[in-house]
Each structure stands twice: as C-alpha cells, then as structure tokens.
C-alpha cells in the first residue's frame, strides 16, 4: 500500500523518494512545479489503484484497507486543490498543465472547475455584479445586465483566456474540462440570482427583453471561445447552460405582449360600427391607403409583433400565431360589417 508523506509547506503527498524530488528540482523546476509533477504521478497511481480495487472489492484485505485508501484519496484532492490554486494565481502554465492532467487521471474534473471558479472567477464577478445595488442606479433599472456583461467579457479575455487555451490545446487530453460552463457561466448565474434577481422577471417586458438579448449575446461570446463545433455542442449540453436558458420565462413574456397587443385591437373593434378615418388618403408609392380606424390599429398591431423591441426569435412561432389571430379578427369584422 502506498503511504503518504509530507513536503515543505504542503500536506501529505505520495511516497516518492527524496532522490526523485531532488532530480526533478535539479532540472530547473520550481517548488510548485515539482509538486505538480509529483501529484500527476500520484494521480496516475491512484487511478490504477482504484481500478484494481474495483476488481477485488469483495476481498477481505481490500475491505480492511478502505479507510486508508479514502484517506489517501482525500489527501490527494487537498494537495491538488492547493497546488492548482497557486498555479492559477501565479499563471504558471506548467503547474496548471500538470494539475489538470492529474485531475483528468483521477476523473475529478468537477474539482478543478470548482477550484478555478472559487479562486479566480467568483472573486471578480461577485464584486462586479454586487457592486451597484439596484436602488442606487440612477436613470433606469439597476437590474439591467448589459454593462455587467461587458465588464465580464473583458475579464474573461484578460484573466481566464490563458486557462481556456491550456485546456483546449491540441493533443493535451484536457478537453474533458469545461471551464466556460462550469466555472464562468455557473458563477455568473449565481451572482445574478443573488445580486440582480429582478433581471429574470418578465414583469417589465421591455427591460426583460433587453436583459434576455444581452444574455444570449453573452452566451454567444462564451461559445466564441470554443475552438470546434464539438466543443460548442458540449458547452450547450452542460446542465448549467440549460439552467441559464430556462431562467428566462419566454412564455410569461409572450403572454404579457399578447395581452398588450391584442387588447389594443380589441379596443378598436369594440365599437358597434366601423369608424372611417377623418383624413384618409389613397394608396401612394406602395403605401396602404387605409380608410378605417380599425384597419390602422390592426396594421400597428401587426407591426408591433415584429418590432425589435418586442419580437424574440426563440418564440417566433408564437408571434406568427398572434399575427394570424389578429388578421382573423379583422376578417370577422369585415364579415359582420361589410
């Protein structure tokens, strides 16, 4: 059984001879890089150990060693978390690369993604989104997200891109990580839910639409950091991605828009007779020459359905159905008032 010993300023790690450590250090590696190299080796051995245990888990001596194995695994996780965190803080590519390979070897990608989120991402995003409470915003709603997204985009380019490039490097074996979804997007969702919960509310349709479109643009920005179609597909398949999309209640938004547009036409049609325009003009240069107030209101409602400030492509079918319903109301009016 592999025993765990200690290194300077570090918790227990696997038993690798002092000669091996000295050999690595003499080759020019700093302390953290040396530690990361050792942790990668330990992770490989731990993976092999778990493979053998899975095949012989019913043997008595394996069962007797279960606590020691769990302790060794926990010790490895703690050592990796500390070493990886230092590598992120110092932007040491060698340390980061070795730690990621160790995480991949023990199939613990979630721990790496969580360490990056808590060490680098959360510190910035929580400060940005929580820095300006809604009640302190002058001249508009404090729940608008566009300015926050712009700051976060700059942060991703400046402070996250280096890790994304390492994980996406060719033939690295590190494509199992998804820091975009499980570190960056996950923290963005959490910060919005805590700091700007009103941003997801469709109660104010105009503000909701602005936030929705800026959020979809932010997702497009994150997808732009994926280097292949398969990477984009993997990003979109992550539970956190789907959870973010589901935060936007497009059904409720459309219901409010439906009531707003349909009620305007209903108000025009409520009269018992048709109402001609006082200043009607014949058709000129392709412009409809409308003679009835009801027809003018209908045209305004139809245009309203497809305006940039109302229409959402994701629910285009609903707006098309509303368009046809509005037209059918006009047809009925013509039947009863020819």
Layout: helices, strands, pairs:
Blueprint: E1 4-7, E2 10-14, H1 18-26, H2 31-55, H3 60-64, H4 66-90, H5 93-105, H6 109-130, H7 146-168, H8 179-195, H9 205-223, H10 229-237, H11 239-246, H12 250-269, H13 293-305, H14 316-336
Helix pairs in contact: 2-4, 2-5, 4-5, 4-6, 5-7, 6-7, 6-8, 12-13, 12-14, 13-14
Structure description:
With 338 residues, the chain is mostly helical. It is built from 14 helices and two strands; from the N terminus they run ββαααααααααααααα. It has helices at residues 18-26, 31-55, 60-64, 66-90, 93-105, 109-130, 146-168, 179-195, 205-223, 229-237, 239-246, 250-269, 293-305, 316-336, and strands spanning 4-7, 10-14. It has a two-stranded antiparallel sheet. Helix 6 packs antiparallel against helix 7 and helix 6 (109-130) runs parallel beside helix 8. The protein is elongated and about 90 Å long. 27% of the residues are buried.
């Amino acid at each position: 059984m592999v025993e765990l010993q200690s290194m300077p300023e570090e918790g227990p790690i696997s038993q690798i001879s002092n000669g091996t450590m000295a050999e690595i250090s003499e080759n020019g590696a700093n302390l953290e890089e040396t530690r990361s190299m050792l942790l990668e080796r330990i992770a490989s051995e731990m993976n092999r150990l778990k493979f053998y245990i899975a095949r012989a888990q019913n043997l008595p001596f394996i069962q007797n060693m279960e606590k020691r194995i769990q302790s060794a695994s926990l010790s490895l996780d703690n050592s990796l978390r500390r070493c990886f965190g230092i590598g992120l803080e110092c932007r040491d590519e060698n340390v980061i690369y070795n730690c990621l390979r160790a995480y991949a070897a023990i199939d613990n990608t979630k721990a790496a993604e969580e360490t990056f989120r808590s060490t680098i991402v959360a510190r910035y995003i929580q400060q940005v989104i929580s820095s300006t409470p809604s009640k302190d915003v002058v001249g508009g709603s404090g729940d608008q997200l566009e300015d926050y997204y712009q700051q976060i985009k700059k942060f991703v380019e400046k402070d996250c891109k280096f890790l994304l490039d390492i994980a996406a490097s060719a033939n690295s074996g590190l494509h199992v990580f998804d820091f975009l979804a499980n570190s960056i997007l996950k923290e963005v969702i959490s910060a919005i839910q805590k700091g700007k919960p009103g941003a997801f509310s469709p109660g104010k349709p105009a503000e909701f639409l602005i936030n929705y479109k800026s959020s979809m643009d932010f997702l497009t920005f994150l997808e732009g950091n994926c280097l292949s179609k398969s990477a984009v597909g993997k990003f979109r398949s992550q539970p956190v991605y789907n959870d973010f999309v589901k935060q936007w209640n497009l059904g409720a938004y459309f219901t409010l828009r439906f009531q707003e547009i349909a009620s305007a036409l209903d108000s025009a049609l409520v009269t018992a007779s048709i109402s001609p325009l006082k200043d009607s003009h014949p058709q000129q240069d392709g412009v409809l020459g409308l003679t009835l107030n009801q027809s003018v209101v209908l045209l305004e409602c139809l245009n309203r359905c497809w305006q940039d400030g109302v229409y959402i492509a994701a629910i285009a079918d609903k707006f098309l159905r509303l368009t046809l319903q509005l037209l059918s109301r006009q047809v009925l009016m013509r039947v009863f008032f020819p």
